[in-house]
Amino acid sequence: EGVFRFSYSPEFITWVLKQPGQPWEWILVLKKDNGLVGFITALPIEIRVRGKQATMAGIDFLCLEKKQRKKGMAPMLITEMARRVNQKGIGQAIYTVGAKITAPVSSARYYHRQLNIRRLVDFGFSTVPNGTSLEQYESMHALRLCGLRMFRRTTKEDKETIQKLFSRCSSSWLLERRFCLEEIEHLFCGDGPLVSLISECGGSFASFYLVPIAAIDKSEGIVCAYVYYYCCDGGSEARILLMERVLSEAKAVGADVVNCLDTMDSAAFLDRLLFIPGDGMLRYYLFNWKTAPVPKEKVFVSFF
């Protein structure tokens, strides 16, 4: 019963649903009285688990209108999706859930880096610590602007460089999504809403997207930037520099806060860059695939 609500734009949803390989029969809607009350999508993606690779259904965007919950609607949507996935000859799936339903393959926590302190405080997302003024708190969270010229926005010519970078870093992960060039071009190098940055040397890459957040008791909201995929074949300082560039770019495009899971290489920069742990957890589940638990820092899978 949270007070915050995601406000994905129609353009964002359309772009996500036009990913390469998206079967239209894997986009399910539940209607009642000519109104949309339920939704779920799936996408065939390549997942590597401890060195073994398989095509799995990546489940995303499962949602139900509040009045329709606890009526068996969610299991009905999931069952129908499973039937359609099986028709394609795919027997495994990967998905994430905030709540703990069974033993997950991995668990991660959301961390937050505040950018627009005043707006976050006014919105009720943040509070100023006791004994600290608002101005002092803003000064503490001022961004360090250095090394910005080392990075630029990606273009379609960068897709092979990104794929090679992912491959070089692949040995670091135990649970990993593998991307083909067509997927990389659509997600990271196209004209979509994802913001993707690459270093001039091709050794660092990061991406994020914006989601407006509304409160059920307020007329105005905030804008959250969610870190999506990132990769760096350098050391800790290179990772910090990469994420500093992400913070700077996120603020430039209007984000009030940057949200990041403590997966991948996040341990290198979360504390140094003043990310604070949040209350939200994300748990990773594999369907019809048995494996030992995967440490969160070994996870290279992200969902919208």
Automatic annotation (TrEMBL):
Which reactions does this protein catalyse? N-terminal glycyl-[protein] + tetradecanoyl-CoA = N-tetradecanoylglycyl-[protein] + CoA + H(+)
Residue stretches making up the N-acetyltransferase domain: 1-155
EC number(s) on record?
A: 2.3.1.97
* Cross-referenced InterPro entries: Acyl_CoA_acyltransferase, GNAT_dom, NMT, NMT_C, NMT_N
Query: From what superkingdom does this record's organism come?
Result: Eukaryota
Alphabetical GO CC annotations of the entry are: cytoplasm
As one GO molecular function, the record gives:
glycylpeptide N-tetradecanoyltransferase activity
Q: Note the PANTHER family from the entry.
A: GLYCYLPEPTIDE N-TETRADECANOYLTRANSFERASE (PTHR11377:SF5), N-MYRISTOYL TRANSFERASE (PTHR11377)
Q: What is this protein called?
A: Glycylpeptide N-tetradecanoyltransferase
